[in-house]
Amino acid sequence: MLSAVFCCVLWGSASPAIKIAYDLFGIEASDTASRLMLSGTRFVLAGIMVIIFGSAISRKMLIPKKTSWKYIVILSLFQTIGQYYFFFMSLANTSGVRGSIINASGNFLAPLIAMFILKLEAPALKKLVGCGVGFTGIILFFGGISSLTEGGVTFAGEGAMLCAAMFYAISGCCIKIFSKYENPVILSGYQFAIGGLALFAVGLLMGGSLVFGSMGCYLNLIYMGFISAGAYTLWGILLKYNPVSRVSVLGFINPIMGVLLSALFLGEGKEALSAGSILSLILVSLGIFLVNYQFEKKI
């Protein structure tokens, strides 16, 4: 339980960590090139960390099979390049609280894609109810459906985070398919590194730059790499030694941590503690709980 909560704290800290990084590196919201370089550097570090952590746990160097490289490249397109291009764009144009709540939509898009598009699992009423509850919470957060057409959201801010959530959902389905053929730790570590290199290269070619003006820049970057590497590796260990449903259900803590940490480190307490935010967060967390919880059948 404590290990799972620690993972959720790490994932929840991603939004405030990225917004703090923009201030430390002096990256403006309009500076897409430098934003891509920052994102790329983070995930190259994350990939190296995952490979090192995974190799240490396995007591052997984790190297992909020749047939696995196509899975790694495909996964990197969705999980790192696609998802975090939009994730970093969003956090340059919206608050950490709003980003954390919208990002949770990936938990509802993933089962819908798995059930109705990729046919990876049979439709389940419990999951559909959970998705409905979660999406209701997100819509209420913006003041209802009408706010979507009346300027309440922007593509560069909230829309970009929704795109990031969609890529997250697709990548989750890809991992479920590809892990049949390769160790998921290998898939994740190498796709982080390849995706990170691609993002960095594009940002560099676009004329971006990263100015390390203080020790805080280095510490922030290392921490952002550890968020993905540490949380993913530890979560994988939890799934290995515990029932999947018992671990996955704790994912409802992620948006709660994201909102609380944004309020704490970004000074967004007023937005985080408003009645609308709290109600939305309750519904979103309840939705994630319903999607992942496995009801035990009594005999």
Would you summarize the structure shown here?
With 299 residues, the protein is mostly helical. It is built from 14 helices and no strands.
3D structure, described in words:
With 299 residues, this protein is mainly α. Helices cover 75% and strands 0% of the residues. Helix 3 runs antiparallel to helix 9. The longest helix has 27 residues. The mean pLDDT is 90.
Layout: helices, strands, pairs:
Layout: H1 2-12, H2 14-25, H3 32-58, H4 69-91, H5 96-103, H6 106-116, H7 125-141, H8 155-178, H9 184-205, H10 215-241, H11 244-248, H12 253-266, H13 269-272, H14 275-292
Shape: globular
Average pLDDT figure:
90
Uncertain spans: none
Per DSSP, the total helix count is 14
Whole-number radius of gyration?
19 Å
Order of helices and strands: HHHHHHHHHHHHHH
Secondary structure: number of strands:
0
**Main beta-sheet annotation:** none
Q: Gap between N and C termini, in Å?
A: 27 Å
Give the strand content.
Answer: under 5%
Estimated helix fraction: over 70%
Oligomer: single chain
Class per helix and strand makeup: mainly alpha
Which short descriptors sum up this protein?
mainly alpha; single chain; globular; 299 residues; 0% strand
